[in-house]
Each structure stands twice: as structure tokens, then as C-alpha cells.
Amino acid sequence: MFGINADPRKAGAFFPGGSILNDQPLAQGRGHWAALGLLLIGTVFVSLITTFASLAYQGGATPMLLVWSRFTALTLTLFLVLRAGGGTFRLPQRNFRATFWIAICLMMMSVGYLSSVAFIKVSLAVILLYTYPLLVAVFAALSGREKISPLRALLLVTAFAGLVIALGRDIGLTVDLAGIAFDPAQISLDWRGAALALIASLGVAGFVTWGGAYLDGVDSRVMNFWANLWMIGLATLYVAIVGGVALPQSGLGWVGYLGATACYVTAMICWFASMKTLSPTETAMTLNLEPAISLVAATLVLAEATSAQQWIGTIILLISIIFSSVAVRHKK
């Protein structure tokens, strides 16, 4: 397990089910691949959250119930794990302060993403969420961490074009062999769902770009614990003032509710552990799998209709972002 001052390449990272890495020092290569494996596991589970959430909503649950429950479940899990392992909850002042803005980023992601699928289809929510790699590139460039070369700028523009094509008919745009047609009367995308998904994207981008710097040299589980504790407070305050909590009223709704919560707990523990070792670019590259997994899950479980145009746009988006990330990694 990570100690408070442990090197992330020397200790294990806990996730539900056990310790992925052993307690002996790891070679940099092994530690790197282990971190990628953790990130991949987290990506699979985070991809399933909105599908389970949609089932929960169909069963009568509300978005704020899922938001509050996921924060509480992860905080309790981390508390029990740290106490059982004799870990400390203390952090250096710099890192402790960072847990609050990390909490804001994760709150934006959670509330925005979970709430968006109450207004729009899961397939559209994940496509809009996936604007975050574009934001990561912009944030990294503005903060001086990475430079955007002309090639990468072209690839990011191509990725944005893929996003527009993927949204396609929901924003009144049709792309086929006959050409491109735009009909405002055909716009069916609910602006509330779109805005919430974009807020989630902004939160993920901030977390991926700057979060890793504050996980270096400290126990990722403790950072995760405090960030989620802040979020419980924010969510509880919102519920106390506004309300909006309702339990599922059907068996399928309970399956969705429990499934979404379990997926979040697993995904966030894996993400925090992996980001101690991986760069923002490597993190974004691995998370490229998320849209495809989410689209497949929505199609198979929720029977959502997806068009060829949507898949083509998503593929263009993914390929452009992957090549953009590879170009940065090769340059380094």
C-alpha cells in the first residue's frame, strides 16, 4: 500500500478486490504498465456509470441520490481501508488545499454527467463529455506544460469536426454521400443535457491536467478521501436547500443505482492511483476507450439507437485525439 511519502513505483495501489501491485519495489517499466492497467480498469467502470444511472432513473431514482451516494460510498470505503491498514489521514498543507479544488472538478464531473442523461441519451452524453481531451490540450498549453504544434492543432480541429459529425442529426446536421445539410427544425438535442455534459467535461479536463501534480509523493487514497468528503458536504448542502432525493421504486432501478455507485467507487480509486505515475497525455490516451465502451453498453443494455453517422464521427474524434497524444509522447 502507498504510504504518505511513498514512491508510486514502489508500492501497491488498492482497489476493491485487493492490491494490484505487490509491496516490493517495482522497476519503472512494471510500475508504468501496472498504472496503465489500473487506468484501463477505471475507464471500463466509469464507462458503465451512465448506463446504470439511466436504469436507476427509469426506476424512479433521482440524479442527486446517485451523486450523494457515490461520494458517501467511496469515502466510507477509503476510510475503512485506511483504518484497517493503519494509514494516516494527514496530508502536507499544499496537497490538503488541493483536495478542495479537486473536489470541485470531480463535483462538476459527477453532477454534470449523471444529470445530463436525465435529459439526453447516454450516447450523446458521452460524446459531449469527450470534449475534455480537447480542453486538456488547451489547458496544458496555457499552463506551459505542453506546446500545441501545428500538426497537433490540425488533429484537434479534426477531432472537433468528428464531434460535430457524431452529434449530427441531434443538432440538425446530416452528413452523407450527398453532402452536408443543416436543418434547424430538426434539432432535438436538449440544451440542458448538453450544458450539463459540457460542465462535466470541464471538470474532467481540470482534474486530468493538474490533479497528478498533487498526487506525487502522497497517498492517493488520502487525497481521494478528502476530496470526496468535501463533495459529500457540498452535495448535502444542496439537498438540504433544494431537495431532489428519491429512492428507486423497482428492482431494475435498484440494480442501476447500486451498479452506478459501485462503478464510481472502483473507477475513482483506480484513477487516483494511476495518475501518480502517468502523465496527463497518457491518461487521456487510455481514456480514449471510454466513448466506445459507453456507446456499446448503451446500445446493448438500453437499446439506444445509434446511427452510422454517430459512429463515424466518434471514430474520427477518437483517432484524432489518439494521434495527437502519440505525437506529444513521441516529441517527449
Topology record:
Blueprint: E1 14-15, E2 18-19, H1 28-58, H2 63-84, H3 93-116, H4 122-129, H5 132-142, H6 150-167, E3 173-176, E4 179-182, H7 191-210, H8 220-242, H9 251-275, H10 280-286, H11 290-301, H12 308-331
Antiparallel strand pairs: 1-2, 3-4
Helix pairs in contact: 1-9, 1-11, 2-3, 2-8, 2-9, 3-7, 3-8, 4-7, 4-11, 5-7, 6-12, 8-9, 10-12
Word description of this protein:
By secondary structure, the chain is mostly helical. The protein has twelve helices and four strands; from the N terminus they run E-E-H-H-H-H-H-H-E-E-H-H-H-H-H-H. A hairpin with a 2-residue loop joins strand 1 and strand 2. Helix 2 crosses helix 9. It starts with 13 loop residues before the first strand and ends with a helix. The N terminus is likely disordered.
As a whole number of angstroms, the C-alpha radius of gyration is 20 Å
Estimated structural class: mainly alpha
- Major beta sheet, strand line-up: 1-2
| Uncertain stretches | 1-27
By DSSP (H or I, 4+ residues per run), the number of helices equals 12
Please outline the major beta sheet.
2 strands, antiparallel
The H/E string reads EEHHHHHHEEHHHHHH
Features of the shown structure:
332 residues, 12 helices, 4 strands, globular
Structure summary:
With 332 residues, the protein is mostly helical. Helix content is 68%, strand content 4%. The strands form two sheets. Strands 1-2 form a two-stranded antiparallel ribbon. Strands 3-4 form a two-stranded antiparallel ribbon.
